[in-house]
Amino acid sequence: MAHTPSMTRLIQALTRLPGIGEKTAGRLAFHVLRCERQYAQDLADALLAVKDETRLCSVCFALTEADPCSLCTDPARAEDAICVVEEPADLLAVERAHEFKGRYHVLHGAIAPLDGIGPDELKIQPLLIRLRDGTVREVILATNLTAEGEATALYLARLIKPLGLKVTRIAHGIPVGGDLEYVDVMTVGRALEGRREM
Predict the structure, then answer these.
(1) Helix, strand, or coil here: 34?
(2) What is the SS3 assignment for 69?
(3) What pLDDT is attached to residue 46?
């Protein structure tokens, strides 16, 4: 069946989303077409709002609409521990486990020389600045258990340990090659509980 030009445009736009192939994009496009116009308007508004209103927290670099973010301004959270993650989605995965009550730092990637991503492309310097005031006693390295995540954790451990801080790595209850974003809550919780010093 031939698609109208607008339907083709929508399907092509949806296939650019990660994990969405042409069949799934087609199903989503037909779903939008069958729904009331208000649904399509709400979806369009939500897409634009997330682009216009979301920014990075100036402290931890998580996604936020208020700067600093609610995690950085929450007085109930411990200030002596920082959990370092690769991406904002990884922060959400750790939060869902309800095991960690400290602060966060989002690197926005991992060291990947083959992809041209070195330490300077990540939010490493702001992390080191945060560690200088003497408040933090432990840094938990919760980078993904991939080659890049491990390399990033080792690099950070080498930078942070000389500062006299305890540096721990999340336990390997998370499958090697796995992203925190897709791991179940119990496994993330156990990985945090079983973290080890580096």
Answers:
(1) helix
(2) coil
(3) 96
